[in-house]
Amino acid sequence: MIKIVVVGASGKMGRTICRGILDEKDMELVGAVSLQEVGRDIGELVGFGLTGVEIVDSLDKLINMTPQVLIDFSHHSAVDKSVAWAVERGVHVIVGTTGLSQDQLRRYQELSLSSQSNIFIAPNMAIGAVLMMKLSQLASRYFEDCEIIELHHDQKADSP
Question: Is-contact 87 107, C-beta < 8 A?
Answer without folding.
Answer: no
